[in-house]
Every structure is written in structure tokens, then in C-alpha cells.
Design brief:
Length: 621
């Protein structure tokens, strides 16, 4: 610690605020908030520093030469300021929204006499009304197209003022009824504003309120015998109702709420946000975040809530999240609720649903987030330039003669030592070769012996590559990989090396990837290789390891399910393979057969009443 930094820490105020940690070049490496700047910032240089987030940035503390603080009147103000500073400086060690500078909004230019509805990426205090942020330009385009079909507003940028005719003749949009023609004074400012207010209600998700208002207006037009206007309103109501029907009903009465689903993989996170207004789901957006794998879930969740709702134009009364904010870091659930309430102008509650429809919908949001991360990884792998760079980096780190263009990764899965299986996944040019994936049912190993299981799998895989060794023609066509990776540490690598040496494959490159600290172990090296956290090579080997694990787990589960069904039905008298299939086709599981009455079992083709009674008695015994 430099004398200047030590002096700064001594002068820190005991007040809420935000702090910026800077390195020798003046770059901001971390932004944080605190109830007490003095106690919070000083804790980073204590030997027993609390908080998982402090542990995560321990590696950069030695590089911090200056701390800049800004006092605020409350933690809520600190939350807002922190979100803005993270957006501005994009510090490496904060959880932060990706591409947050370019999230689009829909803007209604209320300062104009005849407002326009347009897309924008800037929030400007010019009297306009904003809706968003949206996750992508396509989300905005979808909303804009729907609004244009329902509400004919002007799209031109000409200056139109009340009481002044701007053009001699209207454009084509007026003739096809996509614009009301304010440029030729075909509509008054008051009537045009009424239509713009309806656009606002629609974008807020308050379609039911909008439809009720339009019905009242339609009834008034009919009473005035303005049947053309009434027919136009009728068509608009029907179009809005069709839109409402296409939206998934959330079955939460007239509640307004947001559902936040979180998924994480390696140094990335994704959040799916379901917006529900008036009992209907009006929006589904997915946001990507940079989040170190060491960051606890509550910190990632809290960071998203702060950064998203700091610029959101609509905040509901309730936000449902997958887990609570425990307050071990810079904030707590109460702090976040106070911050959100200040932004909304009314109370906001953070809730964790435990069961029921809300839990089911939150689980759906989480699955959406996880699928988005999987697609992002696939897109990354499809980028040829990135994968080649990752392969070059991996080859250099492991001391290979060149980039490993073909990599095979192996994993073992079992349940309490039973149904042990092995998996082999193949990546060529950094991309999965799913047609060459292989599964191995462990035959010769008793109990949960990871080392011996790896040896059996590798022996069966590579023995066919030796000249004259028995093996299928397909096995002999398998190419020799440039690198073999086993899931595990030093022990798994040593066991794998023993088999490869016995098969004469002394020069085949081999490494083990230990999951706990993401270290790479080599046979002839005592210390592990640690790739940088932001390394594309690390991302590639993690993807390999995760794919091998997934492939092994799915095979293992299928064997367990088959064994469960087989063991239950094998004890049933008079039930052979055909009747077993019929029972499963009708009931789906052994449990449902057990719970079914005798009459339902007897209704299955090939099952008599007497046999149904024996099946029922055997399963209930």
C-alpha cells in the first residue's frame, strides 16, 4: 500500500456512497457501493476480509493505487450512481450487462405538437416518453410494427405545428390510412394526442384499459351516427383483442410483475425477463452479463436488478427472483427495494416464489436463460477466427508443436458406483463433431473407481489404432487426436498416461482439466497450468469438458431409468416384454401402474382381470 493510498483510506467518511478503485494507469478496475465507505473500503486490506465478492477481487487489490469516493444521502442513491458508473467505466471485475450502451428504447416525442413514435438508443431529458430498454433491435422492431398496424401515427421528421399547413398534398401513408395527415390539418392536435395516448397504453401493456376506452368512444360515435368512425374503432378493438389473445395468459388476475430467471456458465450469465401486465405476458427479453464464476448468485442477481432498473421506464409492484439477496456484499434486499421504490414512485417488493404457477413461470424463465447461454456458446464456437485463436493459445500453453485441431475429451459418470459409464466427445477445428461422439458402458470396474474407469474407456478407444489389433472398421478409421483431455486432476492424468504408454502411444498429448480451480494438469509437470480467466483457450476446454459431462450424464440417466423399469417389471408374474411395453405406453411409469385401480390396468391390451390383480398385488407388496 502506497503512502498516498494509506492516507486516502484514513480520510474516508463514515457515510453511504460509491467508491472507484484505480490502478497505476488511472483505469477504474472496480466500482462498489457501501452503507459506510470507511468500513467497507478499508475491509479490502484486512487479512480476514468478509464477503465472496471481496475474495473474488483479491487478485487486483495489490494493483490498486487510488480510491475515489462519492458520498450520497442514502444507499438507494448509491445504487443508482453505481449502476451508472459501471455502465460508464465498464470495470473488469464488476458484474455488468453486455453491450449496455446500445440497448434500444421506443420514444414518443411529447414535446412536439404532433408527436412521433420512433426507435432510439439515447435517453435524453427533452420531454419525450421512453419505453424500454429492449434486449435487441428486433424486439423494438416487433413492437413498432405492431403499433404501426394498430395506430396510424406520423413517421416523417418535418416540423408540423398546430394551425399551420405544412404540406400542400399528403404522402402515400395518408392515402393508405397509415397516417392521419396532420401535415394537411386533416386531424386536430387534441385528437392526434388522444391516439398517441392510446399508443402509450398499448406499450405499457394496458390493453384491457385501452379496449374499454375505445369501446366507450365507439358507443359515443354510434350515438352521434358517425358510423364510419364507429366502424374504424370497432376494427381497432378487434385487432387489439387478437393481439391480447396471442399473448400468453399469466393467470395472475390484474397483477403487474416481472419474472427474472438467471442462468450461469463459466464467466457468463443470462437473465430472462418476463414482463406481465394486467395478467398477460407482454414481453420476453434476455440480457447477457459478464460475471466471474466466483461471483455468488445473489451478487449477480443484484447487479442485474440495479443496472437494468436504473434505466428501465416501467417498474412493477412485484419482481420475482430465483433467490434472495442476503446482504453479504454491498447491499441487501431492503436496500434494493428502497432503490426500486424510489425509481417507481411507489412500493416494490422482491419475492422468491416457492411453488405454484409463479414458480413454474420463473422456472420457464430460467430455462430460457440457460438456452440463450447455450446458443451464445454455439455462436462463439461458430466464429472461425475466435476458435483458431483459442486453439493456437491452447497449443502454446500446453507446449504442443501446433494447435490441437482434433481434441477428444473423456468423462465418467456413475451413481453410488452403479451404472458407471464413460463418454467421449470430439471437437475438430474447435467445433463439435457429434457424429463421432461415443459412449462406453463400464464393464470391468467394480464400484466408483474413477481412475480405473478412465483407463478402461481409453483402452477400448485406442486399442483399435494399433496395427493388427482387433476392432471394427469404423474404429480403425478414427483419427488419432492432437490432444486428449480427461475430466480430473493429477490422478486421472496419471491413470490415463499409464494406459496410453501401454498401448505404445507415448507421444500422444494428454491433459486433465480439474473443475474446482479450472487447472490443466500435464503428465510430466508437477505444477498445473492456469489459463487466464478471460482466455479463449480456457473457454474452449471448459466447453469440451461440459459437453463430455452432459453426454455422460444423459447416457447414465437413461441406463438408470431402464434399470428401474426393468427391475420393477421383472418381478411381475405373467408380464413379458410386449405387455411391459403396453403398460408403459398407457401409464408412462411404474408408479402410475402402482397407483392405478385394477380396472384401469385390466383395460390395457393383453392384460386380463386376474393378471391385473396379480400385478397390483405385486407392486404394492
Amino acid at each position: 500500500m502506497t503512502p498516498e493510498l494509506e492516507a486516502t483510506l484514513k480520510r474516508l467518511p463514515d457515510r453511504p456512497g460509491v467508491y472507484l478503485m484505480k490502478d497505476a494507469r488511472g483505469d477504474v478496475v472496480y466500482v462498489g457501493k457501501a452503507q459506510s465507505l470507511r468500513s467497507r473500503v478499508r475491509s479490502y486490506w484486512q487479512k480476514q476480509a468478509p464477503g465472496g465478492e471481496i475474495h473474488r477481487i483479491r487478485s487486483v487489490i495489490d494493483r490498486v493505487v487510488d480510491v475515489e469516493v462519492t458520498e450520497t444521502d442514502s444507499v438507494s442513491e448509491a445504487l443508482l450512481l453505481e449502476a451508472n458508473l459501471i455502465k460508464r467505466f465498464r470495470p473488469r471485475f464488476n458484474v455488468r450487462l453486455k453491450d449496455d450502451k446500445s440497448y434500444p428504447y421506443i420514444k414518443i416525442t411529447l414535446a412536439d405538437d404532433f408527436p412521433r413514435v420512433e426507435r432510439t438508443r439515447k435517453l435524453v431529458d427533452d420531454g419525450s416518453r421512453y419505453f424500454g430498454p429492449y434486449a435487441s433491435a428486433s424486439s423494438v422492431d416487433e413492437s413498432m410494427n405492431m403499433v404501426r398496424r394498430l395506430f396510424p401515427f406520423r413517421t416523417c421528421a418535418i416540423d408540423i405545428r398546430e394551425g399551420e399547413r405544412a404540406l400542400r398534398r399528403p404522402c402515400l401513408l395518408y392515402h393508405i390510412k397509415r397516417c392521419q395527415g396532420p401535415c394537411i390539418e386533416a386531424i386536430s392536435r387534441a385528437d392526434y394526442r388522444t391516439d398517441i395516448d392510446q399508443v402509450g397504453l398499448f406499450l405499457e401493456g394496458r390493453q384491457e384499459t385501452l379496449v374499454n376506452a375505445l369501446r366507450r368512444e365507439m358507443a359515443g360515435a354510434a350515438e352521434r351516427t358517425d358510423y364510419e368512425r364507429a366502424a374504424t374503432l370497432r376494427d381497432k378493438i378487434r385487432a387489439i383483442e387478437r393481439t391480447m389473445e396471442s399473448q400468453k395468459m399469466a393467470a395472475f388476475a390484474r397483477t403487474e410483475l416481472d419474472m427474472v430467471g438467471l442462468a450461469r456458465r463459466d464467466n457468463q450469465a443470462a437473465v430472462t425477463l418476463f414482463s406481465i401486465r394486467d395478467g398477460k405476458m407482454i414481453g420476453r427479453d434476455v440480457y447477457l452479463l459478464d460475471a466471474a464464476r466466483e461471483a455468488p448468485e445473489d451478487e449477480v442477481l443484484a447487479s442485474f436488478l440495479e443496472q437494468y432498473y436504473a434505466r428501465a421506464t416501467s417498474i412493477p409492484r412485484a419482481i420475482y427472483v430465483p433467490s434472495g439477496i442476503d446482504g453479504s456484499g454491498d447491499g441487501s434486499t431492503a436496500d434494493l427495494e428502497a432503490f426500486l421504490a424510489g425509481r417507481r414512485g411507489g412500493p416494490v417488493q422482491l419475492r422468491v416464489p416457492r411453488r405454484g404457477e409463479k414458480r413454474d413461470l420463473l422456472d420457464l424463465a430460467t430455462r430460457n436463460a440457460d438456452e440463450t447461454l447455450a446458443r451464445e456458446q454455439a455462436r462463439w464456437l461458430a466464429d472461425h477466427g475466435k476458435t483458431l485463436a483459442a486453439l493456437d493459445e491452447l497449443g502454446a500453453a500446453l507446449g504442443l508443436v501446433g494447435p490441437p485441431m482434433r481434441i477428444e475429451c473423456y468423462d465418467i459418470s456413475n451413481f453410488q458406483g452403479r451404472e458407471s459409464v464413460g463418454s467421449m466427445v470430439v471437437f475438430e477445428d474447435g467445433k463439435p463433431r457429434t457424429g463421432e461422439y461415443r459412449r462406453f458402458r463400464i464393464r470391468d470396474v467394480e464400484g466408483p473407481n474413477d481412475y480405473a474407469s478412465h483407463q478402461e474407456v481409453l483402452r477400448r478407444r485406442f486399442r483399435a489404432t494399433r496395427s493388427g489389433e482387433e476392432g471394427s472398421e469404423e474404429e480403425r478409421r478414427w483419427a488419432t487426436p492432437d490432444l486428449v483431455i480427461v475430466d480430473g486432476g493429477k490422478g486421472q492424468v496419471s491413470a490415463a498416461k499409464e494406459v496410453l504408454d501401454a498401448l505404445g502411444l507415448h507421444d500422444l498429448p494428454l491433459a486433465g482439466l480439474a473443475k474446482e480451480r479450472e487447472e490443466l494438469f500435464l503428465p510430466a509437470r508437477t505444477e498445473p497450468i492456469v489459463l487466464p480467466a478471460t482466455s479463449s483457450a480456457l473457454y474452449l476446454v471448459q466447453r469440451l469438458r461440459d459437453e463430455a459431462h452432459r453426454f455422460a450424464i444423459t447416457y447414465h440417466r437413461s441406463l438408470r431409468d431402464k434399470r428401474t423399469v426393468r427391475s420393477a417389471f421383472d418381478d411381475l408374474p405373467g408380464v413379458g416384454p410386449k405387455r411391459k411395453r403396453e403398460l408403459l405406453k398407457v401409464f408412462g411409469s411404474v408408479k402410475r401402474v402402482r397407483d392405478a385401480p385394477v380396472e384401469q390396468i385390466a383395460a390395457v391390451p393383453g392384460i386380463s382381470r386376474a393378471l391385473a390383480e396379480r400385478i397390483k398385488a405385486t407392486l404394492e407388496a
